[in-house]
Amino acid sequence: MPSDLIGARPVHPGARLVVLGKQGAGKGTQAVRLSRHYVVPHVATGDTFRAAIRSGSEFGVIAKRYLDAGDLVPDEVVIGVVKERLTHPDASHRGFVLDGFPRTVGQAEALEKILAPFSLDVVLNLDVPTEAVLTRLASRRVCSSCGANYSVPDKLPKVPRICDVCGGDVVQRDDDTEAAIERRLELYERETAPLVSWYAQRKLLATVNGTGELDDVTDRIVDEIDRRKREAV
Ligand code: ADP
Ligand code: ZN
After folding, report:
1. What is the pTM of this model?
2. Separation of CA 179 and ligand 1 centre (Å)
3. Cβ–Cβ < 8 Å for 22, 188
4. Is 138 among the domain residues?
5. Residue 168: which domain range?
6. How far apart are CA 69 and CA 52, in angstroms?
7. Pocket of ligand 1 (CB under 6 A)
8. Number of independent structural domains in the chain
9. What is the pLDDT of residues 26-84, one digit of tens each?
10. Contact call for residues 183 and 22 (beta carbons, < 8 A)
11. What is the CATH number of the domain that holds 171?
């Protein structure tokens, strides 16, 4: 038996998961928790792009243009990044939590091909009303080094603007401006919301209420995943 515990929950290695949800729905936070719980890598395309931007690579310079505008990075670029990551042994053997991918039906189709002959276990749709995500996004602050999340005024770092986890700078994301948020939510409705019915048709979708305490949301998600994993065996 694995001895590691997340809160009161024993870990259950192995799962192939996708977390969907609009910007600010808490995807990132829940995805990190799920990756610890199932002992699988957290694959977050947004984090990958932000790391590339910080590194100042040629790829980062290209990515920055899309991210700052709140636009989607072209499918072929994102698909290449994800495909590369999912072929590493940790992901190909034990699974993964995908966060921020797929975001278009084209990306979902590509993912199906990348995973074949395997399939996803569950696609979680973290459901939060738009009014609630707008408030969350406006108050969101992130560590520019490790990506840890903070929010004003209730969850600030202990030392102002310094990350509790790594000592990095805590800032407002460049794409958490009102204009970019509006653009990202509009793209979500147009490009990503159709994935909800796409996955429902494939019987992979589980919609979970994403409002309330973080631990309660995690409990709801884990219960749902475990129920589906039990039914699948
Ligand atoms: P959010 O969900 O709050 O927009 P993310 O960190 O998931 O934050 O993504 C930040 C940005 O990275 C997106 O606005 C987009 O420019 C780019 N990006 C991330 N994932 C994808 C993807 N799957 N397809 C296209 N662009 C992506
Ligand atoms: Zn940090």
Report:
1. 0.86
2. 15
3. yes
4. yes
5. 13-41+88-223
6. 16
7. 23, 45-46, 49, 66-67, 70-73, 78, 100-101, 103, 107, 175, 184
8. 1
9. 998 899 999 999 999 999 999 999 989 989 999 999 999 999 888 999 999 999 999 99
10. no
11. 3.40.50.300
